[in-house]
Structures are given as C-alpha cells and as structure tokens.
Amino acid sequence: MKSYKNKILIQNTITYALVIAAFLLIQILMAGGHINSLLKGILVPLCTYVILAVSLNLTVGILGELSLGHAGFMCVGAFSGAFFTHVMAASIPNPQLRFIIALFVGAVVAAAFGILIGIPVLRLKGDYLAIVTLAFGEIIKNVINVLYVGTDASGIHISTKDVASLNLAEGGKVIIKGAQGITGTPKMATFTIGFILVLITLFIVLNMINSRTGRAIMAIRDNRIAAESIGINITKYKLLAFSVSAALAGVAGVLYAHNLATLAATPKSFGYNMSIMILVFVVLGGIGNIRGSVIAAVILTLLPEMLRGLNNYRMLIYAIVLIVMMLLTASPKAIQIRERWISSIRKPKTKEEA
C-alpha cells in the first residue's frame, strides 16, 4: 500500500513538474522576445483547453461515461461569469476582484446545470448519454442566442424578442444582446492566471481520483453491479463526478470569456465541434490519463499555429498527426511494443551485463 501511494505521489509530482516547467520555459522565451504575437494570443485559450480536457477526462476516463455536452457547460460558465462582471461593475469597482468572484460564479452555475442535467441523463449509458448531452449543449447555445438581458434601477429584465421589449428605464444597460452576445467584458484573463487555474484543476482532479471518492467512482466504471452490491451509492458518486467536471468547464468558460472583447454563443465557440475537439484531446491523450490530456491539448492547440506557414497543407498534416497519435495510443501492437521498450529500460542489469 505504501509503495502504491509513493508511486501515485511520483506520478502526480511529474505531472505538476511538467506543467510548471512548460510555464517557466514560455516565460523565458517571452522575456527573450522569441514568441511572436500570434503565439502569445493563444496562450490563454491553451490554458482553457487544458482545463476542459482534464475536466472532461474526469467524466469520460474516470467515470466511464461518454459526454458530448462539455461545450454547453463551458458556455454556461462563460456567460454567467461575464454577466456577473458587468452587473457588479458599480458595486465592485476592482476588476481583478470581480474576475476572481466571476470564476466562482461560473463554476457554481455550471455545477448546478451539471446536477440538473445529470439527474435524468446519468440513468442512460453509452450512445444514448452522448446524444442527450450533445443535445443539451446545442439547446444552451440556441437559448442564449435568443436571450436579451438588461439591467436598470428596478432590476434585471429578460426577453426573447428584442432589445426594445426589455422596457429599460433611462440609464438602463443591455448586457446580453441575443446573437451579438456580450460586449465590453474586461480582458482580465492572462497566461499567469490561466496557469494557476490549470494547477488548481489538476490538484482537484488528481486528488479526487486518488481519494476514496475516486476509487468508488472507478469501481462504478469497472463494474456497476459489483459496486452497488458492496454499498456504493451509484447516483451520488456519478452526480459528484459529473458536477465537478461541469464546474471546472464553467471555470474554463469564465477564463475564455474574459479573454475576448465580444462573447457570442457561436457554433465555433460553443457548438458540438468544440465538444468533439475536447473529446479528441481526451482520447488521444489516453482515456483516464490526466497527464496525457494536458499534453494532447497543448500539442493539438499549438500544431495548427506552428504549421500556419504551410497554409495549403497544415490541416492535412494535422489530420495525419491525429491518425498517427491514435494508432500509437490505441493500437494493441503499438501498446505492446511501447510496454516492451519501457520494461527493457527499467530492467536492472545483471552482473554479467554490467
């Protein structure tokens, strides 16, 4: 048992060390002027995608349920966080403090949606669960696209028609403008804040996995009937994992919203393509492998930008890299070769070999 705990501690330390080392390397390169403005612009989205990949792996890899609604939880967190920032501008003049509180607001609202969606949805399995969660993400996006929200002295006004139907008093302010979304959100998100949120996400997920709760969740994943027979509350632990995953997606959404001048619920930002892309990070990094999700999210986010010089071929190369990575991580023959290679490295030398 002690050796197992030591092994887990070493693995987690390696994960944290890799993330910290990458952050320091980027800071050194930025200080030396070796990173162009294009790459600087994707550093915050990079942190966002890492948080999304790690949080989705909690549902897909640890809980063992296929969810395609992660972009929906991100969307809920993004709009609730940005809305809070605008509404509380007069009450909390400090933008940094508003942003920090907005992160908690986005997490809580996304977690609440996770619980509401999870109660009926987690009774389903496999493809059925994937379809329902995918539908949830599309519903959220389309509802926000027809939503008009404004505030005045009498409170918050909501409409699904147009701005005029809000009937705002003089001095009132329209915050959510239907398909135009939210404009004028302070750009408080920085790479340093994103890095801190990535570390917090890793800390929450890794500690949850290696706790008694995580072992119960994995027992449900491996054999639901056996887990239930020894007294594990199936509904409780599935909802817990699903809501924590949703809350972290909400945090990623708030970070994403405060990196943009205009936030709109477009298909590119919060559609099913985003959910599929996050799932690709999880699958290519290894289902259940948290460190792999981090590495896959970083590589697959940076790769299209690094290949921008090969404009005519970059998406072809991107697709080839996806196929090769999939073969290397999922092919039984490739896994066997990799394990044999790792075991040959770790194998201690005999006296004759020495």
Automatic annotation (TrEMBL):
- Keyword Ribonucleoprotein tagged: no
Superkingdom, taxonomy of origin: Bacteria
Keyword Transmembrane helix included in the entry's annotation: yes
One molecular function GO term is: branched-chain amino acid transmembrane transporter activity
InterPro entries tied to this protein: ABC_transp_permease, LivM-like
Q: Give the transmembrane ranges.
A: 12-30, 42-64, 71-93, 99-121, 128-149, 188-209, 239-258, 278-303, 315-335
According to Swiss-Prot or TrEMBL, what is its membrane topology?
A: Multi-pass membrane protein
- Main localization (coarse): membrane
Q: Which CDD domains match?
A: TM_PBP1_LivM_like (cd06581)
Q: Where in the cell is it found?
A: Cell membrane
Gene Ontology cellular-component annotations: plasma membrane
Keywords assigned by UniProt, alphabetized: Cell membrane, Membrane, Transmembrane, Transmembrane helix
Q: What is this protein called?
A: Branched-chain amino acid ABC transporter permease
Species per Swiss-Prot/TrEMBL record? Clostridium symbiosum (strain WAL-14163)
